[in-house]
Amino acid sequence: MAVQLDRMGHSVSVIDRSADAFRRLPPDFNGRTVKGVGYDRDDLEQAGIDAASAFAAVSHGDNPNTVAAAV
To answer: Does pTM top 0.85 for this prediction?
Structure first.
């Protein structure tokens, strides 16, 4: 999803606990990468949440996604 949005010209940020996960992004990915958790306010701010028009929480479980959306 992040790659598709990036290729469509959207500004995209990806947050992941593991920096190794960012290696799965293609070399031409222009988005921002933040090592952290998607429900941590500081990590969300580093990813640019304050200027975001949209937010997608797509982790492995409903609970972290719900918390991220609430934060």
So the answer is: yes
